Structures are given as structure tokens and as C-alpha cells.
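Protocol step 4 of 6: record predicted structures for both targets in the notebook before any analysis. Target 1:
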Amino acid sequence: MRRVVVTGLGAVTPCGVTAPSAWQTALSGRSAIQKITRFDCAELPVQIAGEVPEFGATELLGAKVARQTSRFVQFSAVAANEALQDAHYDSQSMGDDCGCLIGVAIGGLGEIEESACLLKERGASRISPLMLPYAIPNMASGFVAIEHRLRGPNFAIATACASGTHAIGEAARLIRDGETKMMLAGGAEAAICPLSIASFAKMRALSRRNDEPHLASRPFDRNRDGFVMGEGCGLLVLEEYEQAVKRGANIYAELVGYGLSADAHHITMPGPEGEGLARSIRGALASGQINPADVDYINAHGTSTPNNDSLETQAIQSVFGVSADNVSISSTKGVTGHCLGAAGGIEALFTVLAIKHDVVPPTANLDTPDPACPLDYTPNTARERNIKLALSNSSGFGGQNACLAFKKLA
């Protein structure tokens, strides 16, 4: 079986607009959640989010690209530039065996909302001819492929908040099956807009700590009251091991396992006892021929919602048994918020860097551990640990689950 390794990283996140800067903030445990600045939120019940700060699309991509693309595509373009440069790829070296797979949960919801208001208020003649390209989720992978001449497999996965993780797992499968030699894969999202905030707030899914935004996202804490919306993009360059060695690439880690499952239970609630996620984790371990006792770190889905965090704890306990107490676990959503379709890409990137640097990023704001979440969730302070094997978990509305297993190269 062909081996798959990670040779490049790119990130646009609320806690940093490069992979190194995002990683350093994640290690610090400083929350990037603030009051919403991109639109007037005074009439909304929730007024906080993990916005990407000071993102200048025109400066980063040029005026023409900024004008022709929506925010989630812009995030993808910037992260792709960084990841491919990090992997020492350029457009001249791309071919039919290089592809792109970016998961997006929602797409250009903000642009759809603005266009709908414009249509109602000023008529059809005012709608941009680019409205549909602004909105459709596959435009992230499509635009990146155009920019970098990635002529291999190219598509988008939309599995809610598991989109980025599924994208990485399926990209790795394409390489293992010999369909391609290199894939740029991960997740992107930019859905912070009045409509999404109002909708999630109506579901009672969001934290309402409007006066304490930096304390709002608190995975596994007894006083958590919901997730905080984030945005961004996390991309990994995956390639076949022999090719990476041949061209002298810097290898961060090997992707050795991938598991996926469905709860088949409820459109928004996780399955009972985290059973679906547990099957996904078992699948990743089985495909990578991994003994649960050998796992050193898990980047948890850890959304900061009461149900998710307790059920994910049950899933981990179910899979690992007595070994669960020996695994270091954390949720970096305490820093970034929940970046929806981008979450899996960003968190896979953090997992790879945890392996590379032998350090466990902390769970921010974990001040009062929940008795229903009794595992080692690395509260507030990063911890050095030799990390040879690590997992990254994701779940999404509709009951989709995914898990990736990464390994340090000997």
C-alpha cells in the first residue's frame, strides 16, 4: 500500500493568518474570540465570534482576485499559497497527478444573504453575475486548482463540521489507491453573518457570554454554554511517501489511519454514548494497525457544547478503556472557536504540529472540569510530551463522524 505523508501546511485562522502564528497562539491558550466587527450585531442575541483579524484580501491576493471571490475562497487561496510554498511546490511542477480537495460546510452564506436583501430592496438588476460563484462550496477547491494548475482530482466535500477531516481522509485514499501522487486537502469556511448567528442562536447552540468573549469557548468545562462560531482555512499538502523522499521534502508526519461513520440518529444531536464517533475512531485505528494504548494525543472535536463534550468523552472511553487515562487530549476550539467546515483542516494541522514539536496544545478556559468529562484534557497550559501517534476527531450535523491518525516518522 502506498504511504501518505504531510509535506506542507497552510492556515488562515482567528488566532493567526499563517500556520506558525496560529500554532503559537494555540500553544499560548489565548482565546481569539472577540465581539463581531464585520457587521452590526447590536440586535442579535449573540454578538461574539472567532473572526479572522485584519485579513486584507486585496493586499494578499490582488484587487482582481479579491473582487471575483468570496471570503471562504480567499481564505483557501491564501492558505494554499502558504502550504504549497512550505512544501516547495510551484505551478510549473504541477500536473495531472496533483489534485485539490477542500471541504466546506456552508460556503458563501454571507454573500447569499447580502444578495437576497439586495434583490428585495433594489431589484434583479443589482445582483452580481458572480453571486453563484461566490456561494457554491466547491469554488474553494476549483479556484485553488485554477491558480496552481492542479489538474488531478478536484472536488468538495460537505459533511457539516466534519468536512475538512473527510476531505483529508479521502485525499489520502486517492493517493493510496494510485489515483494521484499529491493532494492539497483540508477545510475552509467563512459563514459568520447575521443569518448564521441568528439561526444557531435560535437553536440555543451558541454561547451567550457577550460580555466575556475571551471566556466563551470553554470545551469540557462544567460552565460551558455553547460553541462560538469561527472561520478560516487549514490545508495540508499530502503526497506519496516515495515521491516526497525522492524530492527531498520536509516530512511533518505520516497519515496512517482514517475512519468514518454515521450516527444515523438525529439531524443535530450526536448519537447516544458517542457510539458513532467511537466507530470512526476504531476505524482509524484499524486502518492504521494501531494499538489504542500507543496513542499519545487526541485533538478532540470538543465544541464547548454540553452534549458534544460529554458524548465525545464517552466515545474515547469506549475505544480506549483503561488506556484513556494515559492519553493527552485537548480541544483547540477554546482558542479558535468552532470553524465549522474549516475545523477539521485547522485541527489536523495542529495535530501534525503537535507531533512535529512534541507538545500538546492546551484546552483554553478549562477552569472547572466537568465531572462528566474526567479525562486529561490539558487545561490552559501546553505540555511537552513525546508524541509518536495522534488522532484528530470531527463530527457534524447529520451525524457524520471522521477521525484521522497521524504518526511520527521513525
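Target 2:
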Amino acid sequence: MNDFSLDSRLESDSFPVTDLPLCQVRLMNDARFIWLVLIPRRPGIREAFELSTEDQAQLWREATALGQAMKAAVQGDKLNLATLGNVVAQLHLHVVVRKTDDAAWPAPVWGHGKARPYDMDSLAAMRDMILAQIQSLSLTAN
């Protein structure tokens, strides 16, 4: 994992939260949605099939456990998990908790309206809530 570097667009569009055993967890800077991005800390990976079998399983464990916890914490209606990579080629998995009254429902969150950036207080509160969910799942960094 020493050669891992984060794509500049992911870096500029999101805030770091923590590292899980495989993935860096980042919060997208759009307060309209509960929207996390998991980026496997493996250099040069563009597609999920390029990960080892063990890393593929770990990515899925991290995404589904965190998604389930976040959905419960905010009483979401649906969990969206997606890898697209059409704009940012580096493998990253979107974990988006949806509510039927959110700004984009039922359409995808991508490209819907203008992002509403977090203010510092809301960002701190959201990061604290995400970290609490991660701690409750015993998902800890290496």
C-alpha cells in the first residue's frame, strides 16, 4: 500500500474520514446526501476485478457493513452501492444512503442539481457520526 495515491478529483470533492483495513473512507462534499466513497488503498487499480479475491471480499464487507450502519443511523429508505469510474478512473465505491424525500429521489445522486457544500459544524458532526458507526462495527484500520 506504500504506492497508493488518491486521485486529485476524489481529493478535491470529498473529505477524509478514516481508513478501514482496505479502504480510505471519504465523505462527498454535498450535504444534500449521506454519501461516502470507499477507495481501496491499492496502487493502480481501476476495476474491482483487478483486486485480489481477498480484497474484493474485503471491499464488499466494508461497503455493506458501513452502508447498513449508516442507513440505520439516519433512518434511510434505500442504500445505493455503485462503482462507475467514467470520470475518475481510480476504483472507488459510492455508498449512498437515500431517503424518499432527498433532493434527487428516485433518480441517481450523480449530476443532480448543484452540490451544497458542508459548513464546518455540519462537516464535523457528520464525520463524528460516521466514525461512531465505524467504531460500533469494529471496522478498524490496519
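Step 5 preliminary note on target 2. The chain has one domain: 8-137. DSSP finds three helices and five strands in the chain.
Proceed to step 6 after PI sign-off.
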